[in-house]
Amino acid sequence: LRMEWGVWVGLAVGATSVPLLLAVVRELRLSGTYLGNTMIAFAAMGELVTIGLLSIVEINTKAQGDTALIIEGVSLLVGLVASAIFIVVILRTLLFWFPGVFRKIVSHDDPSEFGVRVGFGMMFSFIGLSILAHVEPFLGAFIAGAMLAFVIRDKGALEHKLSSMAYGFFVPIFFIHVGIRLQITPELFMNRGLDILIVIAVMIFVKFLPSLLLFFRGLKLNEVIGTTCLLAAPLTLVIAIMELAVHNNAVTEEMSAVVITAGILASLVYPSLSRRLLRDAAPPSGAATQAHPH
After folding, report:
1. What is the pLDDT of residue 205?
2. What pTM was computed for the model?
3. Are 210 and 287 in contact (CB under 8 A)?
4. Considering 15, 63, 244, 289, which has the largest number of Cβ atoms within 10 A of its Cβ?
């Protein structure tokens, strides 16, 4: 077991992801509001940084200190990002010249589901490119989603369709796979219960410090704490990071179980607390979206 375990655990504890936060934002009808947009943008930036750092950490772990392999891995990663930027420029140009094609992508009544096919085509293409670049496939999927979001600003029904496929099919399969392998036993709580509580506490502490920047965006104290609680529950990324750490022999199965168990409990506690804190910020049903009063 190499000494990188602290880096992997630190990355998992400090990870930030969008899905859970986005679900709560929609549940509280904050979509389109100043608060909701600020929360999503803050989480998206955190997720981008987390995935970027994860890719670099994995490259370094696989290289085992070999400078040549590290340079090669980083070069391939930069090449993957550069290719995505190049394709985005091309797609933005095509959007200007052929707007009808892109309107079909976001159409809600297209029987051929052209938009869904384009989304899956981009996802699988960049998963393949990420494999060629020797980085994790979910980085390619993330890049494909970011490209769609940047090229098509008004996503219409496409976002809802892709979200339905993700949360209704792919995410459950991922959790079933992880659940089968995860060793959460009464002995784990008895022997490592304090460690689990410490990890849960650290998860929210490390998110609160950068969340203080939200005060400069005009958010109130309850809104900042509510956002912090949602950022402190990135369960999918915590599981993915720990799975990669175990795969690379950077952490033990027991350490992985401790961090994932903490992530599960955090995802149960913190979102519930966030809903209570943000309840007053939710606009009344049927009310029009308004700008933030600050």
Report:
1. 92
2. 0.79
3. no
4. 15
pLDDT, tens digit (0-9, with 9 covering 90-100), for 41-94: 888 888 888 888 888 888 888 887 788 888 888 898 888 889 989 988 898 888
Nearest to 139 by CA among 233, 59, 195: 59
DSSP assigned state of 287 = P
Give the tokens for residue 52. 């970027």
Main-chain dihedrals φ then ψ at residue 282, nearest 5 degrees: -70, 130
The Cα 200–Cα 229 span in angstroms is 11
**Cβ–Cβ contacts within 10 Å for residue 102, how many?**
18
Q: Is 113 left (phi over 0), alpha (psi -120 to 50) or beta?
A: left
pLDDT band at 1 (very low <50, low <70, confident <90, very high): very low
Euclidean distance between CA atoms 127 and 140, whole angstroms: 5
Q: Is residue 270 within 8 Å of 232, Cβ to Cβ?
A: yes
Structure tokens of 291? 């700008």
Q: What is the pLDDT of residues 153-178, one digit of tens each?
A: 666 677 777 777 777 777 778 778 77
Task: Give dist(CA 138, CA 241) in Å, integer.
Answer: 11
Unique residue bearing structure tokens 């098509």: 152
pLDDT of the residue at 269 = 92
